[in-house]
Design goal:
Keywords: Cell membrane, Membrane, Transmembrane, Transmembrane helix. By secondary structure, the protein is an all-alpha fold. It has two domains: 197 residues, Growth Hormone, Chain: A; 189 residues, MFS general substrate transporter like domains (Growth Hormone, Chain: A), CATH 1.20.1250. α5 runs antiparallel to α6, α7 crosses α13 and α12 runs antiparallel to α13. It is globular and about 55 Å long. The two termini are 24 Å apart.
Length: 397
């Protein structure tokens, strides 16, 4: 690296004594966030029985966290103003801890929903700042690798949180499962306090800053691609279980194995994206909707074959973790002058598209059946491909 490059690196990131320890503390936070967000899915029935609510009502515990995540992703960086970003992240982790304790102690449905709203604030706040913080912890050339490390936490939680939660729920009850997460979050809180350096805000983010980034032509087009990419993914994924049970004809044990295959494949996607995103991010942007849309089409065509379904789900799972790394690497390279504003807008778009994807998929399922739901996912994937094109129009000039 030349002296000029080193000088640029010094400007772009803070001096951190142990940057990888800081990155790994954020990795654990990601794992806890994903586990906390989706744990009710694996514990839906016992939670509903314990709180005197219906399964459908309890399922809204996932939706409400997503709703508050959209708001928090837009407001965190602006409301935080010039507050040290380390303090903001520690507050977010503390809110996650409070949420878990409230869920474990929840006497009724209203307390559960309040706790999940707090978790949503953590989700939106953390993700809106995460990439910007990583860009300050490591040199620009190391950002894709740091992103891959952080998203390993997502892969871990996606692979193991649901099956472990379901198993432990049968042994110690659903409240016990949430209590198990509490000491892990406490450890994470202390780790972050020690490992993260002071990260003073470099400028005050305002809504005019957000609008300035939003209306950059290449960024606005990128948001369109993001909305349809994640919308496509969650239109299919949210209703994967009814497809596997109704079309493939699997039982609970086989279903758990298939979901484990999907989750474990995420480690491969994380590794590949971390290696490739640094130099090829423009060309990689089309890969998620292309591959995931093709997998969904393959499931419609070959859904009766268990072996082919397992292979297709492994491919989907690998791309499911890669997509976040690819897009956040794109952010670090193309909106590096305003990463917090870009992160806020991108996280809001992602969370909103997840909610809309699940909503559209459910409407199609009730009206026309699971085939229509998967077809809707494929249409969204095609729209995302059109927005991305060759990828060149999404790069800053």
């Amino acid at each position: 690296m030349s002296q000029t490059d080193e000088a640029k690196d010094a400007v772009r990131h803070d001096t951190v004594a142990h940057p990888m320890s800081a990155v790994f503390s954020m990795t654990l936070c990601v794992a806890m966030l994903i586990a906390s967000e989706f744990m009710p899915v694996s514990l839906l029935t016992p939670m509903a029985e314990g709180l005197g609510a219906t399964a459908g009502q309890t399922g809204q515990a996932v939706s409400v966290s997503g709703l508050f995540a959209v708001a928090a992703s837009l407001l965190t960086a602006t409301v935080a103003g010039r507050i040290d970003r380390k303090i903001v992240l520690l507050v977010m982790t503390t809110l996650m801890l409070v949420s878990l304790v409230m869920v474990a102690l929840a006497p009724n449905f209203a307390v559960l929903m309040t706790a999940r709203a707090l978790l949503g604030i953590t989700i939106g706040g953390f993700w809106s700042l995460a990439t910007a913080v990583l860009m300050r912890l490591v040199a620009p050339a190391k950002v894709p690798q740091a992103l891959a490390i952080m998203y390993t936490g997502q892969a871990l939680a996606a692979a193991f949180a649901a099956p472990i939660g379901s198993y432990l729920g049968g042994l110690i009850g659903w409240r016990g499962v949430f209590w198990v997460l509490v000491p892990l979050v406490v450890i994470n809180l202390f780790w972050q306090a020690i490992a993260l350096p002071a990260l003073p805000a470099r400028s005050r983010l305002t809504f005019s800053n957000l609008l300035g980034v939003l209306f950059r032509p290449y960024f606005l087009r990128a948001l369109g691609a993001i909305v349809f990419t994640w919308g496509s993914a969650f239109t299919m994924f949210t209703y994967l279980r009814p497809f596997l049970e109704g079309v493939t004809g699997v039982g609970v044990t086989t279903l758990s194995i298939l979901l484990l295959v999907l989750g474990c494949a995420g480690f491969i996607g994380t590794w590949l994206a971390g290696r490739l995103a640094g130099d090829h991010v423009g060309r990689l942007l089309v890969a998620p909707p292309l591959v995931m849309g093709a997998v969904t089409l393959g499931l419609l065509a070959f859904g009766h074959s268990l072996v082919l379904v397992a292979v297709l789900l492994a491919v989907w799972g690998a791309m499911n973790t890669a997509v976040s790394i690819i897009w956040m690497a794109w952010l670090s390279q193309n909106v590096d002058d305003a990463p917090e504003a870009a992160g806020s807008l991108m996280v809001a778009a992602i969370q909103a598209s997840i909610l809309l994807g699940a909503l559209i998929g459910g409407l199609l399922l009730d009206a026309f059946g699971i085939g229509a739901t998967f077809a809707g996912s494929i249409v969204m994937a095609l729209a995302a491909i059109l927005f991305v094109g060759s990828g060149r129009s999404l790069l800053k000039h």
